[in-house]
Amino acid sequence: MSAWDLLVTVEDLGSDAPPVTLSVASDLHVGGVILKLVEKTQIKRDWSDHALWWEQKQRWLLRTAWTLEKYGIHADARLVFMPQHKPLRLGLPNGNTLRLRACFSSSVFQTVMGVCRMLNIRHPEEHSFLRPVEEKKKKKDKDSAEEIYDLTEVPLSSASRPCLYNGMPAHFADSPQMEAIYKMLSVTQPPPAPEVITKQFRPASVVDKAHINGRWLDSSRCLMQQGIQENDRVWLRFKYFASYDIDPKYDVVRLTQLYEQARWAILLEDIDCTEEEMMLFGALQYHISKVSESEPQALSSSAAMDDLESALQSLEVKMEGESSSVSEMLENMTAPELNDYLKIFRPKRLTLKGYKQYWFKFQDTSISYFKSKEESIGEPIQQINLKGCEVAPDVNVTAQKFLIRLLIPAPEGMNEVYLRCENEQQYAQWMAGCRLASKGKSLADSSFQSEIQSIRSFLAMQKTSSGSHGNANANDESINPHSLVSPRYHKKYKAKQLTPRILDAYQNVAQLSLTDAVMRFLQIWQALPDFGLSYVVVRFKGSRKDEVLGIAPNRLIRIDLAVGDVVKTWRYNNMKQWNVNWDIRQVAIEFEGNINIAFACVTADCKIVHEFIGGYIFMSTRSRSKSDTLNEELFHKLTGGHEAL
Amino acid sequence: MDDIDAMFSDLLGEMDLLTQSLGQETVPPASLSSTNKETNYSMSYTDLNDSLYELEDTDLDALMADLVADLNATELKLAADMQGLKQPSPPPPDLPPPPQGLSPRPTSSPVSPASPAISTSSNVSTPTSSTTSPLPPPPPQTAKPTREEIEAQMKADKIKLALEKLKEAKVKKLVVKVLMNDGSAKTLMVDERQSVREVLDNLFEKTHCDCNVDWSLCETNPELQLERTFEDHENLVEPLLAWTRDSENKVLFQERGEKYEVFKNPQNFYLWKKDKKSLKDMKDQDKELLIQENFCGTSIIVPDLEGVMHLKDDGKKSWKPKLFQLRASGMYYVPKGKTKSSRDLVCFVQFDNVNVYYGKDFKGKYKAPTDCCFFLKHPQIQKESQYIKYLCCDDENSMNLWVTGIRIAKYGKSLYENYKTAERKAAVGSAWTNCSTPSSSNPSTPSPTIRAKSPSQANGHVPTPPPGPVTKDFGNVPPPPPPPPPPPMANFLPPPPPEPVRPSPPPLARKSSSKPALPQRHLPTNFPPPPPAMGGLPPPPLGPPMDDASEAPPDFLPPPPRSTGFGSLPPPPMNSLPPPPPPMSMDLPPPPPDPGCLPPPPPMFTAAGAPPPPPPPPPPAAPRAPVRPSGSVRKVPPAPPKRTTPSQGGAGGGGDFMSELMLAMNKKR
């Protein structure tokens, strides 16, 4: 066989270096080419990660046993010899950017698996890469200053499960810097500044949202094939909203990032919610940021540490229990009371009289009041049981107005009663008491003190947000309420108007632990009607206008683009088959009962739609196959399309 | 008082039934027939409850203060209690006559006076008993001189226990009349810790119905023309306490298909937009998938409901259409001229503080467009009010959709768990109707922890002990009485075994152990006595004791506390003793309710004050083991205090008991 010259660019020689010329024959296998190449460069190093990339055909020559002939390579081929793993800038759901080594030669599905393994995220199949939304040039300078967490030094491992050290993959325990990165991954980020939210791209319509879904990378092909170069930026996101088997013990990073993605989806109005829901989300964010500051280890500790901790804790409790004297015990048992002069006002009755001062006594879940302190031994003028009542704050710190509005149920209806406190301290105590009592808890309840604390910190929040704008004191207490809600509410409410509303919602979540609060946030998010819907603009066969296809974990919905109404719903479990005609880029689906639909995709490639549908069907098979290992083959079978077969 | 009388008579009737059932157990054929009647409970709780409850609290507070006053004093008290324990035994002998039927009741007597809602105060003194149960108490006294520290520690423990008991003592109880479909009524004692599920189980036992998942407890309020099915996980007492005294509200026991319809045909709720025909042919597999998707994920998915309903204007009789939407976070409507997008929705109501009710005949009452109305209100609102939100649907189907959707949004996962439990019950129930009984009993603290079985406890207590005496006094339930007297005697010893045995099948371990074990266990744990007292109620007691025993030592302790309470009471009993003999019908009824509680103590006492017990036993249970009689005797002493309380007005019983306890303690000091 005749020899001919093959030109190979060796990336490691520098971009200016001329290609190396090799004399090869068509029956030479790829391994032989590499061997020759390495010899010719005379560089001694580990070449094991390197492989040949065929530029014109956009493919890797990974089968070293194949001959050039089999690959169809001729003298005109331009080959590049380069490492398969290269640095990639990875935008995380929490907004931070990681720089890490990712595989550019295997399918994106596998690359994502590798990245998730490195970051200790279970169930990588729920994730994928998204091409980032281009940012305006202006911000470029700012971006360059952005902190990048560098993980490129992490050795590549092929173990399916990283060995854990202190609950984190061992490579994070190497240095303080690495530990800091792990902390960034596993601890929720503080609320962003309101300006940051405002500046981010927000989808204004369902079409905008549909465009985002056109950016998903193809899971069946590698990064190089999709134009992603070394040091390029991609986003790692949860793509399939079918979170499987979440266990706060093992899913620290996963849960944190899922929360971050959900939080941003809410803040950027990627998913719609009502005002009440927004306030609750705000309250939960506030709570989560508070708690994660105070107990940052709670989420990040390993299972083993958990056990140890709980063991220690129970030991502590034991010791306390043993050491606590009976007198202490009795002290705890004697019901605490609040006694003070407060002003009361009943809007419905005696409207003219206004606020009147009495001596108030808060005991158990009831408030009684007397003419004066001296008469408090006798019968109260009235006793009000607060169990089941509604409590609302009416506070203006600058105006020194501390009002507790009570709506007290009675057989005849609800009675409105306002209690006016003199100062912050008094207000916090009585408000906390009312809150607990409304839930049927007495002042003796262990949450009383923390309730007081949370009320005070909220008052502080109002103080800072309504007071001077000098945010000089980076005190954690000074969270701007605008950081907790979407920009729509920045316009609608001033910070000090927002505070009481969030506080209102906050009272129901204030006692949650960090994990519970995160879980609650996710639950409420998942319960939103539009949750889990990925939109694509499509053109149904036989229809003349564009419509929106919503792809959910369990169904497809057809949405009228103009009105936004759901026209039709099809559930996957009624689906008999779906096909893609790659030539005319049309997706055809057949459902039980002889229902056939077909559509062409407008805002996304039909491969993306195909992958979504196949992906969700794959996700739903997971619970059935109890095995821990991911059935990658099945995934590709369901999502690959003809290219993968 | 009339109410009380009525209550008592009801109680007596029930006791008779129970006694009959007991008889059956011993003599299987007879008793069952009586229980067969289906029960409707129409609830009536007396004002007495309130008053009693208050009394108790104040008394408890006083007791607390004393306890807190100084440790030394408490030590002395404890010592006194110990003595008292021994002393009490003697008083019982006097009481013997009542005991036969009453013996069990007396134990309950402190609470019993207020039949409607009884708070078990007897527990307060229990701490001492707890100590006694282990037997350490006596030694401590003797050892005091030598090991003061140990004693101090022991006392401290006792005080802790006492304090815990104090908390327990605040448990509210109601006597509830439940109306059955056939117009008859059953009366139940319901503890505030009991869930509706437990009460239902109790009713299953009593009615021998088929136990299917549709059986429900419903409340009706004629004034508001409302009807609501209680959810199985709710506590029954709380909503009943919201009823006004003069209300004609009722509790019904009936089958309500809509209660769990969403789990039987989820497609009708989650796919309601689809055409009816395809829904009808839904495969079971697909239904299961729907349930999985919506109830078994990380979050509960609420049916996607949206539609026009008519909303009643405040205070007017006009109804205006609005486009409503249901979301997990509440109900919303679309304001005029706005889009349906989430951000424009106006919150109509959130479900934290309201329940959803069906409205009956609103067409007539409020001129509603149709009779398919439901409304939302705070459970405490019992009369017409602007705070009630009335809604009118076009048809019944959409009304059920909305009401069910709101329930899902409000109760979430509990609803599904309730259904699962109900399903299991139905499966078991059909096989063993009797089973439930054993589990149900349990006046003592353990019951609350028990899942669903404890419900019957209250009933068990009340009915069993009272039947004998009550029936006699009132004569309302003539037939049952005759059997009771003899059985009661036997009950002390035998009763537990008979009932428990039969029911046992389902709870295998429990029942099997309970039947034979009852006596045995009682002896060792101190619990045994209670069961005997229960006699009629054997099943319930058994359940609790079993739980206690199995669970942990602490449980055992609780029972002893009661006994100790009695121990402390002994002095009072003396005072009270005179009353007991007189115990007319009034007196008798009260004791029954508590008997359950009291019984346990007796065993304790028996152990401690072995000598005294002998005398008491002779009267009622003489033949049986002396130890048990002692138990009965013990019970007797407590009974007197109760009787005194009843005399006051039934309701005050608990308080009196407490005050007497206090008196006794002071004396000892």
Automatic annotation (TrEMBL), chain A:
Presence of the UniProt keyword Mitochondrion in the record: no
SUPFAM superfamilies xrefs: PH domain-like, Second domain of FERM
Keyword Secreted: no
GO CC terms, sorted: cell-substrate junction
GO molecular function, one term: integrin binding
PANTHER family linked to this entry: FERMITIN 2-RELATED (PTHR16160), FERMITIN FAMILY HOMOLOG 3 (PTHR16160:SF1)
Protein name as annotated: PH domain-containing protein
Lineage, top ranks: Eukaryota, Metazoa, Chordata, Craniata, Vertebrata
UniProtKB/TrEMBL annotation, chain B:
Topology in the lipid bilayer: Peripheral membrane protein
Subcellular location: Cell membrane; Cytoplasm, Cytoskeleton
Cellular component annotations (GO), alphabetically ordered: cytoskeleton; cytosol; plasma membrane
Chain positions covered by the region annotation Disordered: 83-147, 430-669
SMART domains registered for this protein in UniProt: PH (SM00233), RA (SM00314)
Ranges of compositional bias, category Low complexity: 102-133, 433-449
InterPro entries per the UniProt record, alphabetical: GRB/APBB1IP (IPR039664), PH-like_dom_sf (IPR011993), PH_APBB1IP (IPR039665), PH_domain (IPR001849), RA_dom (IPR000159), Ubiquitin-like_domsf (IPR029071)
Main location: membrane
Domain PH: start-end pairs: 302-411
Membrane spanning stretches: none
Key word RNA-binding present: no
Any single biological process term in GO: signal transduction
Protein name: Amyloid beta A4 precursor protein-binding family B member 1-interacting protein
Organism this protein belongs to: Pogonophryne albipinna
The organism's taxonomic lineage, starting at the top: Eukaryota, Metazoa, Chordata, Craniata, Vertebrata
